[in-house]
Design brief:
binds aspartyl-adenosine-5'-monophosphate; 5-stranded mixed barrel; 16 strands; alpha+beta; binds adenosine-5'-triphosphate; 430 residues
Length: 430
């Protein structure tokens, strides 16, 4: 037997027998007639078994079936206005491919509010809930559209190693691993590798891949393994890549709004593409907003979560923070003429940070100086610094947290909702 149709492909004009396959969503026995609602990836369809018309053998088989068991049903499609969707299948043969144990560990229909922890423990069952499935259909579409956009802009996809010898984003957040006789870590960012590629002549590269951060804290917007969308672009400054970033966000919102309307409806999410261009506010202005709202910040500090929220409330949409103090941005961020300010930026959603980026230092002398200032040993970065010796164009780039973007699109308040198998402070299984 092979599936001939998904539920949503059925229509009353089909004369030949069809074969559908899926899970038993619901069983109703009205005495004299039984209804099975079969669910597949695309929807649901009713299978109707009137006792008089169906073979006894079939009836016996079905009377013992449990919810969420896997069936294949062969039969005729019939119009009936009493059936949900106006169609039903009258079975000639039913195969039980797999029985489901009872009770189920979580409520698949999503009527009982199951705790996230339990849902994550049985993610395969959780995905049978159309609301959860919608999140992951949107996730799939988001990655597809990000790739389409970047390819159209002339970016080439690269993949960088995830097992590395050095930190890039501060030494405290590294996961050490055992790598034969060497000291090694899981990579925090493709940063150094995408920059090295700027000396290769590829000009525009992107990577979508995992990054690992040993952050101790347990919040709604941090994971220990997360997906980063990274770009790097030669012969550009920070304003060029900020333009690409805002157009990318706007494009992805439009595509999801147009092509995932069913999924958005299931999530009860009204998605409006943010208006272009996004507002740009200076670091100093952001500090003022915080101080005015009673969140004390001194110049040279990063914004604490309440500060981010306060600025987000004031602006109400996506915005960039620019003109950051050089001292709180990584060594690779290019300072402006007035050295204490850098050509780095953060892209903010009203509720959290979504991306950071910068024009990069491309002078090897300045790069070494900034490393030393940040207590990094240039000799450990030889493989990276070498790329700056033989012709390195000016370049810029950013890293965008894919799960943060998906939180914004789906409206899910917890980052764990938008990853199949999240890794956080407490969770390593499944
Ligand atoms: P990135 O980590 O990429 O810089 P982010 O938004 O996660 O982006 P963090 O530096 O991790 O930035 O944290 C930003 C802010 O989040 C910090 O300034 C801090 O106030 C807040 N924060 C960090 N850890 C916690 C925590 N455990 N609880 C509440 N807030 C936190
Ligand atoms: P940054 O450290 O700001 O920059 O990371 C970029 C973006 O990645 C996301 N992100 C996270 N999301 C969930 N959980 C985490 N633990 C986590 N850590 C980071 C955020 C963040 O804005 N190399 C630079 C990028 C560059 O300059 O190109 C970098 O890694 O959305």
């Amino acid at each position: 037997w092979r599936r001939t149709h998904y539920s949503e492909e059925l229509n009353a004009d089909i004369e030949e027998d069809v074969t559908i396959a899926g899970w038993v969503h619901e069983i109703r026995d009205l005495g004299g007639v039984m209804f099975l609602i079969i669910r597949d990836r695309k929807g649901k369809v009713q299978v109707t078994l009137p006792e008089k018309k169906v073979k006894d053998k079939l009836m016996d088989k079905i009377s013992e079936i449990s919810k969420e068991s896997v069936l294949m049903v062969q039969g005729q499609v019939k119009e009936d206005e009493r059936a949900p969707g106006g169609l039903e299948v009258l079975p000639k043969e039913i195969k039980v491919l797999s029985d489901a144990e009872t009770p189920l560990p979580i409520d698949v229909a999503g009527e009982v509010n199951t705790e996230l922890d339990n849902r994550l423990n049985s993610r395969f069952l959780d995905l049978r809930n159309p609301e959860t499935l919608s999140v992951f259909k949107i996730r799939d579409k988001t990655f597809t559209e990000v790739r389409k956009f970047l390819e159209k802009e002339g970016f080439i996809e690269m993949t960088s190693p995830k097992m590395v010898a050095t930190a890039t984003e501060g030494g405290t957040e590294l996961f050490p691993i055992s790598y034969f006789e060497k000291e090694a870590f899981l990579n925090q960012s493709p940063q150094l590798f995408k920059q090295i590629m700027m000396a290769s002549g590829l000009d525009k590269v992107y990577e979508i891949g995992p990054i690992f951060r040993a952050e101790e804290h347990d919040t709604r917007r941090h994971l220990n393994e997360t997906t980063s969308i990274d770009i790097e672009m030669a012969f550009s400054d920070h304003t060029d890549v900020m333009g690409i970033l805002e157009r990318l966000i706007n494009y992805v919102y439009e595509k999801i709004e147009q092509e995932c309307s069913e999924e958005l409806k299931k999530l009860d999410k009204d998605l409006k593409p943010p208006e272009l261009p996004f507002e740009r506010i200076k670091y100093d202005e952001a500090v003022d907003i915080c101080n005015k709202k009673g969140i004390e910040i001194t110049w040279g500090e990063d914004f604490p979560t309440p500060g981010e929220k306060a600025i987000g409330e004031e602006i109400g949409d996506y915005y960039f923070i620019v003109d950051w103090p050089s001292e709180i941005k990584p060594f690779y961020a290019q300072p402006k003429e007035e050295k204490e300010i850098s050509k780095a930026f953060d892209l903010m959603h009203p509720e959290f940070e979504l991306s950071s980026g910068a024009q990069r230092v491309h002078s090897i002398e300045l790069l070494k100086k900034r490393m030393i200032n940040q207590d990094l040993e240039p000799s450990e970065f030889k493989f990276y610094l070498d790329a700056f010796k033989y012709g390195m164009p000016p370049h810029s780039g950013w890293g965008l947290g894919a799960e943060r973007l998906l939180m914004a699109i789906t409206g899910k308040p917890n980052i764990r909702e938008v990853v199949l198998f999240p890794r956080d402070r407490k969770r390593l299984i499944p």
